[in-house]
Specification:
Elements: H1 5-25, H2 32-39, H3 71-84, H4 88-100, H5 110-122, E1 129-132, H6 139-145, E2 154-158, H7 162-171, E3 176-178, E4 193-199, H8 210-213, H9 218-223, H10 227-238, E5 239-250, H11 252-255, H12 260-268, E6 269-277, H13 283-286, E7 292-299, H14 308-314, E8 316-318, E9 325-327, H15 328-332, E10 341-346, E11 352-357, H16 361-380, H17 383-387, H18 405-411, H19 414-423, H20 426-437, E12 442-447, E13 450-454, H21 455-465, E14 470-473, E15 479-486, H22 490-499, E16 504-509, E17 521-527, E18 534-535, E19 572-574, E20 580-582, H23 618-625, H24 637-664, E21 668-670, E22 673-675, E23 705-706, E24 720-723, E25 726-731, E26 739-743, H25 747-773, H26 778-795, H27 801-808, H28 813-817, E27 820-823, E28 826-829, H29 850-861, H30 866-873, H31 877-883, E29 888-891, E30 896-899, H32 900-903, E31 906-907, H33 908-926, H34 936-952, H35 973-984, E32 988-993, E33 998-1003, H36 1008-1013, E34 1016-1017, E35 1022-1023, H37 1025-1034, E36 1041-1046, E37 1052-1056, H38 1058-1080, H39 1084-1097, E38 1101-1102, H40 1118-1125, H41 1132-1144, E39 1147-1151, ...
Parallel strand pairs: 1-2, 1-4, 2-3, 4-5, 12-16, 39-44, 39-47, 40-42, 40-43, 41-42, 43-44, 48-53, 49-51, 49-52, 50-51, 52-53, 54-60
Antiparallel strand pairs: 5-7, 6-7, 8-9, 10-11, 12-13, 13-15, 14-15, 16-17, 17-18, 19-20, 21-22, 23-26, 24-25, 25-26, 27-28, 29-30, 31-38, 32-33, 34-35, 36-37, 45-46, 46-54, 48-61, 55-56, 56-57, 57-58, 58-59
Helix pairs in contact: 1-2, 1-3, 1-7, 3-4, 5-6, 5-16, 10-12, 23-24, 25-26, 29-30, 33-34, 35-38, 37-38, 38-66, 41-42, 42-43, 46-47, 55-57, 55-65, 58-59, 65-66, 66-69, 66-70, 67-68
């Protein structure tokens, strides 16, 4: 049965209708009919149509042909849900849930589920509790519980979809149904269920389960990021030990490359079954073909080893030939693949996969599945484990001990004896021998570090001791029960066994287990209740042969604790000094008497001495001694300690009592062994000790009680507090109360604890008060000093050893320890004891100059305070303002002075207008009252200020200079509405929603312009003008599909319709481009208003000329800077930049490499601190640079207090202390690396808010995409849904940490950091953003990186605190590394408020204003035109630059005047080798055909097919570098790039040998890897072997594995010991100051980004290069190696062009307003045509390819245009014909009506009088005529001919018979007409059969209708006539690009002639006169200027100019200008 979408849709609707109805009635399904309806629900997986608009009939036009049959049901579905929704919000939630299920809701056929449930039932699985984590409509529940096969079983079902959950609840009202995600299940259900079964959802969506996301186990962290893996691990958590999970899932679980999930699964559970299902398993029920697996696991936490099957299960494999992933399990068990046919194909994502098929359909699949399941379950299902409920599994009969060994032998059959002797392991043989001797005792058998218990003893001991019971192998085919515990826990467990009345025999080892595989054992002691212990004699062991090793490897059971890393709190505790020791640990025994027998055990356990502590009081002993770890675990470390002390002291007291009794008793001497008699428990190895008698303590109430004090912000679980004079701990802390748990301490201990608590609480109150109020509290600070001094005097420093462990028992202990810091080997007070550290103190009291007074005023008040400044500088206010003239201006808007850099800055246009209005208003107010209130001086000052503002105003940008994008958000929608009304010739309304960044449009009446001119008809859908208008506003293109045939299932194969997409793009471009033309035609007044609006919003920014020359930097130590770094003075650029940062509170320091950014950063940070602008600045830098930054800071400011984070500071043990150190101390600066900064916890509140904003944006985009319906692809929808789920999971993780980890560690917000300096800020450019342009190249990764997100959190924290933008300083020489889109991310970090003012809330809004998207239609390898979109052009660049420069200081090395060498760029052209020539031909053939075997590799997979040009580009890059990167089969060539570069390097080496000149060699391809061939090693080999350069002078940066080795190589290079250094951009391009002797930089290959080039060259071209300055003409040669006919030159040229544009934008020096960025990147490679042209070696062919591409695109566009015009011509002919027909009809009907009106008679009311006569009826009364007419209607049959029956007013009346079918029988129906020029009918020609009067009046009524019919025809004709002019205009409209096409064809013909001439053979010509050539002075520079001279047309677009040519044979070419 095939999948019927329409029937499934109808079934779903009926099921939803019934479920909603039952929900309203408050009951479940009760009747069989109701249940049947609900069970037909199959979900909406695959029914994508529900995403389309279906609100009204008009929406049907938007639906595709294949979906149109589902339109009506979808409308019905929406209305149904809407009717049952209580409000719009509930309706939206229902629809959102339903739409989200489109991706995941594929239900399993009942027959498949029955096969699973029946197989389990057949094996005897009984179910008492059942879990369905993804229930759907409950197929698994129905199957497992059908026929009441498990009566009384509990069922819990989860279903996330709201509607499906309602259906599930209605179908199963008796079970517990949760309509939410499985991740919401409570922890109480862990280990509860017998069986969990489901078809789990699949997808790489994150799950909002923070406990998994933050788990230490990698498998759990991975599972939190993938839905299907999560269900497996979470399901295992929920089933009990022995329970089963049976999940159908995607093949991704078993095929995934990462094994961690599968490893975790088989670690916790036994693999029972793994079956691969065929792809057609879900075809009938869900309409989808997808591969899936059935995996059944049995939870087994006590397992010891993995089976071979499980080892296979873990391993995934990939077939080398087909690239198909699989699992080794199915290779080992091919019978577990259920199919009849298999072939290699692709999965639903287009990746290689094996497609399995079963010819038997679902019935056949179910049958084979059942057989395979029966076999797997029979082999692997452990029913003993299942039936044990995980507690006591049934075991074989153990050895039955009897008192007599003889009887023991008789009890066993000889057969069993024989088998035992053959199969028992040597260890078990020893055990059985010992057991025979002590059959009535529990035998503790020492094995290594454990006491093991076997057989029946193990069962009994596990019940008494509560330890895990497992099984171990005993020989080949037998198992025995096993339990055990560590040897050092004997003192804990032995008393429990004795108290239980058990006799215990202890068997110790007689050999060292490390020396013997099976050490010999002997019983050394027995303990019997109420009997003295028996100590067995231990004779010397005799040598014996070591037994064979055990065949079964043992592993420690999961049920036992890990005693190495995580001590069991039941066995260990911390003493008061924080040392870990076992509970009841044996004490040293006194030396025995000489005559006493000396037992000699083989293993001696030595005590570790520990510090003693005071004995507890009797009350303490009673309280803590009554606690145990099983029933009442300790709440914190203190309780653990006290419980440990109490149990030990009680044991000692008991031993003392026993010793006293033993002294009175007799000793028994048996066989020379002395045995002591004891009562009760006995701890072996203990000697009696006598305790002195002490008086009884005073009774105190030590029971827990409510905490009566107020709960403070620092109170947490475990906080130490004081109440009622007692010290205790808090538990169950809530907002309104807590539980106080008192501790009974010795008086001195209580005093110390009380003093500590008082001091700790005082500190918390002090810090919190000052942080909240920013006011010092000297009162609290005095108390804190008093309490601290008293504590130190009495008990020593807080951080001394005797105090640390005690303090750490308090939950706030780490905070208290941070009240001290170490200095010079001693502890000193933290800064908080002296002054506030959470905010800055104002310390400036006097200054020397007015400028310093101005700075101090800005620091303290944030504004100019004349009175304060006058007091500082001892100068009157008038004199002060005169001295500051030009530096401060009066701003009447704030009624105060403002500094120039603040007043004449920012939006000066709006500010000037506001000041002007104020002046006019004040002058008008006082014109009649001069001097009234003394405002005249302020007006005068305001006029001066206004003049300054007007002079600073940017030059007005006029209309002609502006480039408008259609869809810019700042343009009022009314303008767009007016334009579209003009273009579409009808009223169009456009609206914009800023929250959703979404335009909407509607037309009052659609016309031919919308339906014809701007319409694209696709195969499935028609896109009219309104559809295209929305795409034009959003700058997108519809994804139009067409059918390419049918697949094997008869479904359409949908492919992009390139021709329709191109036509749509042309029409969208026409709408967008026509906007500018329409604006041009508007009135001057309109243009002025628009220009004013633009200038006011964008062209209003002024960047002040920051002059920092007045700064003195009083703390700067120039001497030390000079000694260490040879810095003699501060650059003016550095002063200016520091001043800018001080005035703005941050910004961007965009200084070129080597211009002193590090010192700028240090000076700015220190000045901010000194001036009080920032009290705790932080610097973060690259790991390689951060130590150098700290050293520079310390050199510049030797007295500064710097906190530098080294590697040890951020180790896990030290990190918390370091964070507290940051929090509690007032450092001048904190310096750390980027990586360390990423480990600082960020404020959870900030994280939540930012993630919530991003999630809201994704949800808005998701809603917009869903509204687009058919315009979107499934992949696009899935991408957005995945992004939403991942963000939701992140948000839940943050909330989880907020709830569970609050206050456990200091976060960034609490540290008080108020400014961040980010060195190399481009490392953080990968910031999260949201966009709809997901298919556009070059935008980067929208998900961003966690590193960038952490920085955003921190900056937002600072910005929220200050309420302003900035708050951080970015420093980088490459702030824009590759594309101008990176500017938006900079603004998002630093200027969020300003972006919001410009109505920019997302990157799409920013791109709409400043970027133009291009859609290139390029040739692909099959010569088809394909669409490729990118944001290639940037417009309004000057305004963009002004916005950037407002907070940026951009300087090049030339601007700064850095004394550094110049760059001498050399292009070294290399002719291709013969091998390269051959491979180039292969590359061209591969690019044309796509046949990868040409290159000697496997064919491309489907995934690789999509990236073939990227693959081709990568091959071309490798080919150009060295052919051995393609294949090791290629040999070395003396003319390859390695040989050329080696020769050049050797030449420089010899040239500068005297001065030890050094060289850098860069290549990001083929970097150094030991043991592999690489270009580094090859060039080094040539340098050593061919040129004799010592090998030790050539180094690779990749060899440096540590920072120390890296520094050593850099120092060696500066000293000249290393002469050549190889490296990549990432490892050598930054953080390397080895320039002292550098003379050359060699670029072996070209990087992808301009910034990478600059970073490379900056290693040598920087200050401090002595050799280049003295001996190389102050130049560094940069040699670029370019192989001809490769991509080398093209890439270098493209990067230089980008670098030029970026530099010009930063300077604001662009003459053009538009930039073209080019079209090549590392994600996509090159386009096909350019690739082919460059490889051919003829750049003319590149021009030809571009021309051909453009011509082909235009011709295709013209073809589409002609087709559209032909359609319009046909439409016009049709309309013209219809108009003529209509007019003829109207004329005929008017004539008929005039004739009728002339003869009709009417009564007094104006009603016509009936004048009917019937030919065949002689009677003329109405009644008889009516009867006659009714008889005619019944009996007449005219056989479809009109037959006259009478007339009315001279008009004939006729009857016609027409055949029809009624109830399956053929019949006729008769209709009556009145004939004139046309035939007229009333009631469609049918007469009334029950009313004779009405029957007779039928014909008069027909004539009376004529005027109404005429009116309808006239209206229709008028509409048609209105469309004629539009159609005529469409037809008459010429194709606008005809001239362009002709010109391009002419240009192509000329270029063809040129290429032909160039390729023709050269012949010498004798005629003509030879021209004498003048010498060319610039012969070394080769440029193709001819092509440039041909096109002299000026343009406003900045386009790349070719810098290099591939035509030269010169090996060394010098290029000027760089």
């Amino acid at each position: 049965m095939s999948y019927n979408r329409l029937q499934v849709m109808r079934d779903n609707i009926e099921a939803i209708r019934l479920a909603l109805s039952l929900g309203a009635k408050g009951r479940g399904a009760q009747t069989a009919e109701e249940i049947a309806v609900l069970r037909k629900y199959a979900g909406f997986g695959g029914l994508k149509c529900i995403l389309n608009d279906a609100n009204e009939l008009a929406d049907a036009a938007k639906w595709s042909k294949s979906d149109i049959e589902l339109f009506a049901p979808t409308v019905e579905l929406r209305r149904l849900i809407h009717d049952y929704s209580h409000n719009d919000r509930e309706f939206k939630d229902y629809m959102d849930s339903l739409k989200a299920s489109v991706l995941t809701a594929f239900y399993t056929d009942n027959r498949i589920v029955d096969a699973i449930s029946d197989a389990l039932k057949y094996q005897g699985v009984e179910i008492k509790s059942f879990l369905e984590p993804s229930a759907g409509q409950g197929a698994f529940i129905d199957s497992f519980l059908r026929n009441d096969r498990y009566p009384g079983a509990e069922v819990l079902a989860y279903e996330k979809d709201l509607l499906t959950g309602k259906i599930l609840s209605a179908l199963h009202p008796s079970i517990l149904t949760r309509i939410e995600g499985f991740e919401k299940i409570e922890r109480d259900f862990n280990g509860y269920f017998d069986v969990a079964a489901s078809n789990v959802p699949f997808g790489d969506f994150a799950v909002a389960d923070p406990a998994y996301a933050v788990s230490k186990e990698i498998a759990y962290r991975q599972a939190s990021k993938s839905l299907h893996n999560y269900f497996f691990l979470k399901g295992l958590d929920q089933v009990r030990d022995g329970g089963l999970i049976a999940f159908i899932t995607s093949q991704g679980v078993m095929n995934a490359a990462s094994p961690f999930i599968r490893m975790e699964l088989v670690k916790q559970a036994d693999l029972v079954a793994a079956l691969r299902l065929p792809n057609n398993t879900f075809s009938e029920n869900a309409g989808t073909d997808v591969g899936s697996d059935l995996i059944i696991l049995q939870k087994h936490t006590g397992k010891k080893s993995l089976s071979a099957d499980e080892e296979f299960f873990i391993q995934s494999v990939v077939d080398r030939g087909t690239k198909v992933p699989g699992n080794k399990f199915f290779q080992a068990f091919p019978q577990n693949v259920i199919c009849t046919d298999a072939k290699v194909g692709t999965d639903q994502y287009g990746k290689p996969a094996i497609v399995y098929h079963h010819d038997g359909g679902v019935d056949g699949i179910a049958g084979d599945l059942r057989k395979a399941l029966d076999e797997s379950l029979h082999l692997r299902l452990n029913m003993e484990l299942y039936n044990s409920n995980g507690i006591k599994p049934p075991t074989p009969d153990p050895v039955t001990p009897t008192p007599s060994p003889k009887h023991e032998a008789k009890a066993e059959t000889p057969k069993a004896e024989k088998k035992s002797s053959l199969t028992n392991t040597p260890l078990m043989q020893q055990y059985q021998e010992m057991k025979k001797k002590h059959p009535d005792a529990i035998l503790l058998f020492r094995v290594g570090d454990f006491y093991e218990i076997f057989g029946k003893d193990a069962v009994e001991a596990s019940e008494i001791l509560g330890i895990t019971l497992t099984r171990r192998a005993n020989g080949r085919d037998k198992y025995i029960e096993l339990a055990g515990f560590p040897h050092h826990a004997l003192d804990t467990y032995l008393p429990k066994l004795v108290r239980a009345g058990k006799r215990v025999a202890i068997c110790e080892q007689l050999e060292d287990p490390k020396l013997k595989k099976t050490p010999k054992q002997k019983v050394v002691e027995t303990v019997t209740p109420n009997q003295p212990p028996k100590v067995e004699s231990k004779p010397e062991p005799t040598p014996a042969e070591p037994p064979k090793p055990e065949p079964v490897k043992e592993i420690e059971t999961d049920g036992s604790p890990d005693y190495t890393d995580n001590p069991d709190p039941r066995l260990f505790a911390y003493n008061l000094f924080g040392e870990l020791e076992p509970i009841g640990k044996p004490r040293r025994q006194p030396k025995p008497a000489e005559n006493a027998p000396k037992p000699r055990p083989s293993i001696e356990i030595k005590d570790i001495p520990v510090k003693k502590f005071r004995p507890l009081t009797e009350k303490e002993l009673e309280f803590y001694g009554s606690l145990n770890w099983e029933d009442n675990p300790p709440i914190n470390g203190f309780y653990e300690t006290m419980m440990s002390i109490a149990h030990r002291q009680l044991e000692e007291m008991r031993l003392e009592r026993e010793a006293e009794e033993a002294a009175k008793s007799e000793t028994i001497n048996e066989n020379g062994i002395v045995i002591e008699r004891t009562e009760g428990d006995f701890i072996p190895g203990r000697q009696p000790r006598v305790a002195s008698q002490k008086p009884g303590p005073v009774e105190k109430d030590m029971s827990p009680r409510p905490f009566t004090e107020d709960i403070q912000f620092f109170h947490h679980n475990g906080s130490m507090v004081v109440q009622d004079g007692m010290v205790g701990f808090l538990s169950e802390v809530r907002k309104n109360g807590a539980t106080f748990n008192p501790l009974e301490l010795k008086p001195e201990q209580a005093k110390r604890a009380m003093l500590y608590v008082t001091m700790s609480e005082t500190y918390q109150q002090l810090y919190n008060y000052e942080a909240e109020t920013h006011e010092p509290s000297e009162h609290l600070r005095e108390h804190l000093n008093q309490y601290y001094d008293e504590f130190v005097d009495k008990y020593g420093n807080l951080n001394e050893k005797q105090n640390v462990k005690f303090i750490l028992m308090d939950a706030n202990g780490r905070d208290a320890l941070a009240l001290e810091r170490g200095e010079n080997g001693r502890f000193v007070k933290a800064d908080i004891f002296d002054h506030p550290v959470s905010f800055a103190l104002d310390e400036v009291t006097s200054v020397d100059t007015p400028m310093e007074a101005l700075t101090a005023s800005l620091n303290k008040y944030g504004k100019v305070n004349i009175e304060y400044m006058s007091s500082l500088v001892d100068m009157d206010q008038d004199t002060l303002t005169q001295n500051l003239e030009g530096h401060i201006y009066y701003n009447p808007l704030v009624e105060n002075y403002e500094i120039k850099d603040r007043f004449i800055a920012g939006n000066v246009v709006a500010k000037a207008e506001a000041v002007r209005s104020w002046i006019e208003r004040e002058e008008e107010r006082i014109k009649d009252f001069p001097g009234y209130d003394g405002v005249e001086p302020f007006i005068a000052m305001s006029k001066d200020s206004l003049k300054a503002l007007e002079e600073a105003r940017p030059r007005r940008i006029e209309f002609d200079e502006l480039d408008f994008n259609f869809g810019e958000r700042w343009i009022p929608t009314g303008i767009y509405s007016a334009y579209m009304s003009y273009l579409f010739h009808t009223d169009v309304k456009i609206a914009y929603s800023s929250s959703m960044d979404e335009y909407s449009a509607e037309a009052s009446r659609k016309n031919m312009t919308i339906w014809e001119e701007f319409c694209v008809k696709g195969y499935y859908r028609t896109y009219d003008g309104m559809n295209l208008l929305k795409h034009a506003l959003h700058n997108t293109v519809p994804d139009i599909k067409k059918s390419a045939g049918k697949d094997e299932n008869g479904h359409d194969i949908k492919v992009p319709d390139s021709e329709a997409i191109q036509l749509a793009n042309a029409k969208i471009d026409e709408i967008r481009n026509g906007f500018s033309e329409w604006l041009e035609a508007q009135s001057p007044e309109f243009k002025e208003r628009l220009v004013d609006l633009y200038n006011d919003k964008f062209n209003c920014f002024v960047r002040p000329q920051y002059d920092g020359s007045h700064q003195t930097f009083p703390d700067l130590n120039m001497k030390m800077l000079g000694d260490r770094y040879n810095i003699s003075s501060i650059y003016q650029s550095q002063k200016d930049c520091v001043w800018m940062l001080l005035q703005n509170g941050g910004g961007i320091c965009d200084h070129q490499v080597g211009t002193g950014k590090t010192l700028i950063m240090c000076m700015a940070a220190h000045e901010m601190k000194r001036l009080g602008m920032a009290h705790k600045p932080m610097i973060i830098g690259l790991k390689a640079n951060v130590a150098e930054i700290a050293m520079t800071y310390q050199s510049a400011y030797p007295n500064a207090r710097i906190l530098f984070a080294d590697e040890k500071s951020f180790k896990a043990d030290n990190r918390v202390a370091f964070f507290n150190n940051m929090k509690n101390n007032d450092y001048d600066c904190i310096i750390m690396s980027h990586d360390q900064f990423g480990k600082i916890p960020q404020s959870p509140e900030i994280q939540e808010r930012i993630l919530r904003e991003e999630l809201d944006a994704v949800e808005e985009n998701l809603e917009v995409v869903r509204q687009q319906g058919g315009d979107i692809s499934r992949a696009m929808l899935k991408g957005l849904v995945k992004r939403k789920e991942n963000l939701t999971a992140k948000l839940e993780t943050v909330r989880y940490k907020m709830d569970n980890e609050r206050d456990t560690v200091v976060d960034f917000k609490q540290m008080g950091i108020d400014h961040i300096f980010v060195d190399e800020s481009h490392q953080f450019k990968n910031l999260i953003f949201n966009t709809r342009h997901t298919r556009v190249a070059g935008l980067g990764n929208a998900d961003g990186s966690q590193r960038a997100l952490n920085l955003l959190y921190a900056i937002r924290t600072i910005q929220e605190r200050t309420g302003k933008d900035l708050g951080a300083t970015f420093l980088s020489g490459t702030t824009i590394s590759n594309s101008l889109t990176e500017l938006y991310l900079l603004f998002k970090y630093l200027r969020p408020k300003e972006l919001e003012r410009q109505d920019i809330r997302c990157i799409d809004a920013w791109l709409a204003i400043f970027a133009k998207k291009t859609t290139d239609f390029e040739f692909n390898v099959t010569n088809r035109i394909v669409q490729k979109e990118r944001f290639r052009y940037f417009i309004k660049v000057p305004e963009l630059a002004a916005f950037y420069n407002e907070v940026t200081d951009y300087r090049t090395a030339e601007d700064v005047g850095v004394d550094r060498p110049h760059k001498n760029e050399i292009l070294h052209n290399i002719p291709p080798t013969p091998q390269q020539e051959d491979f180039i031909a292969k590359l061209m053939e591969f690019a044309e055909s796509g046949n990868a075997t040409i290159l000697g590799r496997e064919p491309l997979s489907q995934t690789e097919e999509k990236a073939k040009m990227l693959i081709a580009t990568d091959y071309a890059r490798k080919m150009a570098l060295d052919m051995r990167l393609i294949s090791p089969a290629y040999e070395d060539d003396p003319n390859n790039k390695a040989s050329h570069s080696a020769k050049m390097i050797a030449g420089y080496y010899r040239k500068y040998d005297t001065h030890k000149g050094t060289q850098f060699v860069f290549s990001d391809l083929s970097t150094y890897k030991p043991g592999e061939w690489n270009i580094y090693s090859e060039i080094k080999r040539k340098l050593v072997e061919d040129y004799g350069i010592p090998a030790h002078e050539i180094r690779f940066i990749q060899e440096c594995k540590t920072e120390r080795s890296r520094k050593a190589v850099i120092e060696a290079m500066n000293n000249g010991d290393v002469r050549v250094l190889f490296g990549s951009t990432s490892m050598l391009g930054t953080g390397v100051n080895a320039q002292r002797r550098a003379v050359a930089v060699h670029e072996l290959e070209c990087p992808w980004r301009p910034s990478d080039l600059e970073q490379r060259e900056g290693r040598a071209i920087r200050a401090g290069n002595e050799i280049a300055k003295l001996y190389a003409d102050n130049k560094v040669d940069v040699i670029i190696y370019a192989v001809e006919k490769s991509l080398d030159s093209y890439k270098f040229n493209l990067l230089h062009c980008k670098a030029t544009f970026i530099s010009q934008l930063k300077r604001g020096a662009l003459g053009a307003r538009t930039i073209d960025e080019g079209a090549m990147d590392e994600q996509n490679g090159m386009n096909f045509s350019e690739y082919m042209a460059i490889l051919s070696g003829n750049t003319d062919l590149l021009d030809k390819a571009k021309l051909e591409k453009r011509i082909a695109s235009l011709e295709s566009e013209r073809k589409s245009f002609s087709k559209g015009r032909g359609d319009s011509e046909f439409r016009l002919r049709t309309i013209t014909h219809d108009i003529a027909n209509n007019e003829a009809v109207i004329a005929g009907m008017k004539a008929d009506y005039a004739r009728y009106e002339a003869v009709v008679r009417r009564d007094k009311d104006g009603n016509p009088v009936n004048n009917l006569t019937i030919d065949t009826c002689k009677l003329t009364d109405e009644k008889n005529m009516g009867i006659h007419l009714q008889n005619l209607a019944i009996r007449t049959n005219t056989h479809r001919q009109y037959q006259r029956i009478g007339e009315v007013y001279g008009f004939p009346v006729s009857i016609i018979s027409e055949p029809t079918v009624v109830d399956g029988k053929e019949s006729v129906q008769n209709r009556f007409v009145v004939e004139g020029n046309y035939k007229y009918k009333f009631n469609n020609g049918f007469i009334a059969m029950s009313d004779t009067h009405a029957a007779c009046m039928n014909f008069v009524n027909a004539l009376e209708k004529i005027p109404g019919i005429i009116a309808q025809y006239e209206e229709r004709t008028a509409k048609l006539k209105a469309d004629v002019p539009q159609l005529e205009a469409i037809i008459a409209k010429p194709w606008g690009k005809e001239d362009e096409l002709k010109a391009l064809k002419s240009e192509l013909a000329a270029l063809d002639r040129k290429i032909t001439a160039a390729l023709a053979p050269k012949h010498e010509e004798d005629d003509g006169v030879e021209n004498k050539q003048q010498p060319d002075a610039n012969r070394g520079e080769i440029r193709d200027n001819q092509s440039q001279s041909n096109d002299s047309k000026e343009t406003m677009v900045a386009e790349p100019n070719p810098l290099y040519s591939n035509k030269s044979n010169s090996a060394r070419i010098r290029l000027g200008g760089y």
